[in-house]
Write a structure and sequence with these properties.
The protein is α/β, with parallel strands linked by helices. It folds into two domains: 74 residues, Ribosomal Protein L15, Chain: K, domain 2; 245 residues, CRISPR-associated endonuclease Cas1, C-terminal domain (Four Helix Bundle (Hemerythrin (Met), subunit A), Up-down Bundle). The chain has ten helices and twelve strands. The strands form four sheets. It has a four-stranded mixed β-sheet. A four-stranded mixed β-sheet has the order 4-3-2-6. Helix 3 packs parallel to helix 5, helix 3 runs parallel beside helix 8 and helix 6 crosses helix 7. Its EC number is 3.1.-.-. It comes from Vitreoscilla filiformis.
Length: 349
């Protein structure tokens, strides 16, 4: 299944080697896992993981992506074989990236998807809040995001759009800690708002880790569709930056936030599951990463009703659906009445 073919390696000092047609994971002299290569399309390594050169050659030959992340889950490198994407689609994408109107419309759709989904998180939290103070604060933040949504149609340039998005994010993260159970807020709070590189508190560390997982899935979906993950519309182009993957991920951030809150509020993650590093950085401990990865994979199996599909689809396949919708817009496809199709973001209910 497409949802089960990513191997995450999290144990420090693990060593990955090729064993005929199998990937073997070793720790010191012990074999911890064997996975047939034909079951994989991505191998993701966190932190200090060793790999043999023959394995890297074979992964590239088989079209299996190798992704290297640091201890915080931040992207470091990606190894893959020859790109087999649709060159005509990529040509169209590069042309559209130079079209100011198309770029603004697509970027606006990405921001609208993000704000609508994060607003749903706050509204649900307000409905379930136990105290009047929390309910009022969450409702105010949801109203602020509604105001940001109303401002989007009148935005005339990318800089202004990014400003609206940034202010909405500030309001959202300012209220997010109120969705943590009151007795856990001392350990999981965002008193300084969203921070990263490195995260300086436990909640930010957990969010950064989950965002990196969604980012990898979004990039893989774009590449599978034939789009160039480097050429985006909302995020500015920079060398080595997967701007389009960042664009696509915006509408999935709320999914990461919901899972983070679930893991905390159900006690699946505790304060002791995080490590503080010299300099003030915070990251997940090794065993806690495994807990998050299992929950992430299980969440991706859950079926949801996509607003544009007639049948339920697993959440983990939605990035691929969205990548195809984005490709449709990039190609300039039209409705039967001749109206050009724009990008439609994924909106959760």
């Amino acid at each position: 299944m497409e949802l089960l073919n990513t191997l995450y390696v999290t144990t420090p000092e693990s060593y990955l080697r090729l064993d005929n047609d199998t990937l073997r994971v070793m720790l010191e002299d012990d074999t911890r896992l064997r996975v047939p290569l034909h079951h994989l399309n991505t191998v993701v390594c966190f932190g200090r993981i060793g790999l043999s050169v023959p394995l890297m050659h074979r992964l590239a030959q088989e079209g299996i992506a190798l992704v290297l992340l640091d201890d915080h889950g931040r992207f470091m490198a990606r190894l893959e074989g020859p790109v087999s994407g649709n060159v005509l689609l990529r040509q169209a994408q590069h042309r559209q990236a130079l079209d100011a109107a198309f770029t603004l419309d697509t970027a606006r759709a990405c921001v609208a998807g993000k704000i609508k989904n994060t607003r749903q998180v706050l509204m649900r939290g307000a409905r379930e809040a136990k105290s009047d103070e929390d309910r009022a604060a969450l409702s105010r933040a949801a109203d602020d995001l509604a105001a940001s949504l109303r401002a989007l149609p009148g935005v005339a340039d990318l800089d202004t759009l990014r400003g609206v998005e940034g202010e909405a994010a500030r309001q959202y993260f300012g209220a997010l800690s109120r969705l943590v159970k009151p007795d856990l807020r001392a350990s999981f709070n965002m008193s300084d708002g969203r921070n990263r590189r490195p995260p300086r508190d436990r909640l930010n560390a957990l969010l950064s880790f989950l965002y990196s997982l969604w980012m990898n899935d979004c990039r893989s979906a774009l590449e599978a569709t034939g789009l160039d993950p480097q050429v985006g519309f909302l995020h500015a182009l920079r060398p080595g930056r997967a701007a389009l993957a960042l664009d696509l991920m915006e509408e999935f951030r709320a999914q990461a936030d919901r899972l983070a809150l679930t893991l905390i509020n159900r006690g699946q993650l505790r304060a002791v599951d995080f490590q503080e590093r010299e300099g003030g950085g915070v990251l997940l401990a090794t065993e806690a990463r495994k807990t998050v990865l299992v929950a992430f994979q299980e969440r991706k199996k859950e079926e949801i009703q996509h607003p544009l599909l007639t049948q339920p689809v697993a959440l983990g396949l939605v990035p691929l659906v969205q990548a195809r919708l984005l490709a449709r817009a990039v190609r300039g496809e039209s409705e039967p009445d001749g109206q050009r199709l724009g990008y439609v973001p994924f909106i959760t209910r």
